[in-house]
Amino acid sequence: MPILETHEISVRFGGHMAVNGVSLTVGEGEIAGLIGPNGAGKTTTFNVITGLQAPTRGTVRLDGDDITKVSAHQRARGGIARTFQRLELFGSLTVRDNVRTAAELRGSDPERVTDELLERVGLTAVAHQRADSLSTGSARLVELARALACRPRVLLLDEPASGLDDGETDRFAEILLDLTTDGLGILLVEHDVPLVMRLCAQITVLNFGEVLATGTPIEIQKNPEVVDAYLGQDPGAPG
Ligand SMILES: Nc1ncnc2c1ncn2[C@@H]1O[C@H](COP(=O)(O)OP(=O)(O)OP(=O)(O)O)[C@@H](O)[C@H]1O
Ligand SMILES: [Mg+2]
């Protein structure tokens, strides 16, 4: 059974279907990709999964349980964590305090949890720097550590490699792969297509709110409709 499953979720904003019948799954220890052009509905799909946006129809399941009506807070407690497309850090706090505030929300021994997480994402050396003094690459890692502090079973990452240089992207990829060895499921929204192809077992392509294709990286790369709608464009364009 997948950890996370959406079944035909739709979101209508006025007369506009931002998401239209989207079904996807994320398995234990799996990195699943969610890609598509700007405005395709990726972030809105994340908002439905995390409970920030009620779907017009469709269901969200966590470990087989229907959580469509469950609050965002309860979903976070149940094991769904996310990062945001725009960095949402406390700039005047240190790296360590940014992570610790998240660890405190989740309960026991936040000091130890914080130290472990900083080590795991490679931020120990900058733990006492202010968050607003960091490179984008390090700031994204703080955000990742904050999300991990909730001890998620599934992690939703919204364009985590945006603004990273090649070295930072490689390091980020290795950290994600390492996290999956503990069974963490990851749903990755990212315009860095080579990164998605390298990390993801299954990829879902959205276009105008609908699933255009689902498949392995090889299947997606040779799908003519996907090439037409997205891969043949400039997928590196910032979102
Ligand atoms: N709160 C909202 N109210 C009205 N329309 C919205 C709202 N949020 C998103 N939309 C619209 O829904 C569509 C999907 O937006 P969404 O942000 O999910 O796209 P995206 O795939 O994440 O794009 P990007 O790659 O640019 O981040 C867009 O047409 C967007 O303008
Ligand atoms: Mg988005």
Record field, number of beta strands: 10
The CATH architecture term of the largest domain is 3-Layer(aba) Sandwich
CATH superfamily of the largest domain: P-loop containing nucleotide triphosphate hydrolases
**The first-level CATH class name of the largest domain:** Alpha Beta
Whole-number average pLDDT?
Answer: 94
- Number of separate helices: 9
Outline the secondary-structure elements:
Elements lengths: L3 E10 L2 E11 L4 E5 L6 H9 L6 E6 L2 E2 L5 H7 L1 E3 L12 H11 L4 H11 L15 H13 L5 E5 L7 H15 L4 E5 L3 H7 L2 E6 L2 E6 L1 H5 L2 H8 L8
Parallel strand pairs: 3-8, 3-9, 6-7, 7-8
Antiparallel strand pairs: 1-2, 1-4, 4-5, 9-10
The structure holds adenosine-5'-triphosphate and magnesium ion (MG).
Question: Which characteristics define this entry?
Answer:
239 residues, Rossmann fold, 6-stranded mixed sheet, 9 helices, binds adenosine-5'-triphosphate, binds magnesium ion
Structure notes:
By secondary structure, the protein is α/β, with parallel strands linked by helices. The protein folds into 2 domains: 1-79 and 152-239, P-loop containing nucleotide triphosphate hydrolases (Rossmann fold), CATH 3.40.50.300; 87-151, no CATH class. It is 36% helix and 25% strand. The chain has 9 helices and 10 strands. Helix 6 links the parallel strand 7 (154-158) and strand 8 (185-189). Helix 3 packs across helix 4. The longest helix has 15 residues, at 166-180. The chain is globular. The structure holds adenosine-5'-triphosphate and magnesium ion (MG). Magnesium ion is lined by residues 42-43, 85, 239.
